[in-house]
Amino acid sequence: MTQISPNMFRVISPVDGSEYAVRQYADAETLDRTIANAQKALIQWRRTPLAERVAIVLRFGEEMKARAPALAEAIAHQIGRPLWQCDETPRLVQIGEVLSGLADDVFQPVAYPSDGQVTRYTRATTGGIHFSICAWNYPTAMIGYLVTAPLIAGNVVILKHSPQTPVTAEIADEAFRAAGGPAGVLQVVHMDHASAERLIGSGIFKKVNFIGSVGGGRKVHAATAGTFTEVDLELGGKDPAYVRTDADFDHAIPLLVEGCFSNSGQSCCSVERIYVDRAIRDRFVDAFVAEAEKWTIGHPLDGRPMVGSVVGAHAAGFIRGHCDEAERSGAKRIAPYAAAAAALGEAYVAPQILLDVDHSMPVMREELFGPVACIQSVSGDDEALALMNDTEFGLTASVWTQDIERGAELLDEVDVGAAFINRCDHADAYLPWGGIKISGMGRMNGRAGLLSATETKSYHVRHVAN
Fold it and tell me: Which superfamily does CATH assign the domain made up of 239-428 to?
């Protein structure tokens, strides 16, 4: 994204560096009107029966699915992912279905000890304006994360998408209206960062839901200071995987390679650190390299490459710079398609493997957000556990073992929000999603995510005899 003027921005496609879209930021008058529309819509939406809210959310998913080709094409151009991998609508639809299936139970009153004179219960109550701020890396699926629970729970949502992916947001706006969504209930607004911070600081929002970088999350959190605005922050990760001696290589290797390189490593839960028991290190590396060679790089709109570009030349330079620094510090780099990436353009980074790394290197401490697998050998469980926790981040971690009980014991001691055994780089729609430490706060998805879009109200009823 390039800002053209104070109120205009340009989307530069990383595919070829061309201009893909030009859009205008909302001015103060438009933002005031958006807030007024949300306040007006909230009065009726919170009174709308739950079944009707659910029906609209499900229809929204179907309308997004009907627009899957347009959404996929927009993603390919805006972020450079291969077109054949760009249909995220099944994920958005699944989130809607899962949360809709939980809704009746979540909104049932919860009884507490009562007697003949007093009845006690709680209810999940609704109503408020949510400000949802969406990242660019999974631009369709993340709309599901950010708007589904608030809408089902009777809130209205103002959606600000990344300036790298405005077309995705516009398609979602169209789909919600086609689904019969009432005016003002879900509004899409192109907004610059300064305007977003001012609105957050005004205290007008019940809650801010943010998916993005740690730096962006800090700004959002700071903007809420003194407002008592609730906030969910889903931020970055430096997610570790630990491969024990009893791991099933046929199962583990393809999933770990995918976890490192899928979406060019541009996922908050990408596997960025792999710890392998020293006894199996050489065999693991050989198998990992062989699998990684299947991950070809190519033009996102041509054929079926496994990876395309990263989001832009600046991001590519950051990734390459860290890998170069690691190599100068003694790491061994394996990048089978480096020449092919260079020929494609400045924004292309080939999947690569760094061996002989350690925690003195920035590649093992800082989020790279690129297709880089860093592999370090360890002496066993104790060293692996210590290294997995040696980070500021705390989003996900995985253990690869056939001893499920031992894997769970280890993960109990890893400071993360989501733990995997024999799986990685996966946000399960049935489970709450979020991190700890600088990876964020709060939870999205699952029952906990739906509850987080509500307020718990307690009722104390004293029965008075006539």
Answer: Aldehyde Dehydrogenase; Chain A, domain 2 (3.40.309.10)
